[in-house]
Amino acid sequence: MKRLALTIWLVGMAGCAQPRGVVRDLPPPVMNTNYVARPAPAPPPSPVEKSKPEPLRMIGPKTIVIDAGHGGKDPGTQGVSPISEKVFNLLMVQELIQELTRRGANVVPTRTTDVYLTLEARAGVAQRTGADLFISIHADYSTKRSNTGATLYIARNASRASISAADSIAGALRRHGIRYNGTRRRNFRVLTKHPRPAVLIECGYMSNRADARLLNSPDYRARLARAIADGIAAFAGN
Hints:
By secondary structure, the protein is an alpha/beta fold. It has a single domain, classed as 3-Layer(aba) Sandwich (Aminopeptidase), CATH 3.40.630.40. It is 37% helix and 16% strand. It has helices spanning 2-16, 85-101, 119-129, 160-175, 189-192, 209-215, 218-236, and strands at 63-68, 106-109, 133-140, 150-154, 180-185, 198-205.
């Protein structure tokens, strides 16, 4: 009987054996409770279209006399600049000639080389050509080294046209981010020895290190020339 019972038990166990190749049921996966679902990264932004440059403000067939102050035996100031004022003035005028010419103006420089001219001779160019505007270019100096920026000058009894020209140039300097100290009245002979509209521009202080660096930078001179030309264009369009 014992043998018979053992045989029956073994047969039962064999019938319950799991077939080969069958994987036992696995326990349910353990979820990571620290996992935080994150959104897919956003696509890179499309490139922004570059802003279009402002249209060039034309001047038309106006006669603009550009005077490079000092020259020859008269070097002007120098301050902390590696070049003298007479050299800067000529470099600045060369930039202005290019800028005004491409805007359609008839540009007449008082000098294009390192020569000395009297103040009366400079004023005579404005009178002889019937200039629509006379611009005299200079660089400033002050014993107060902190003084900086551009300054405009007109005659004490300046004409309405001279005042309008100075206002237009001042507005353009501000728009171009150039420091502007205001417009002052002085009876400089290049402003008073002819009846044409006239403005004298002190472009910055050669006694100030920051200004001197700017005045000796071709990029800054080009920027300043664009600002002055925009102001002249605004005046010519009035």
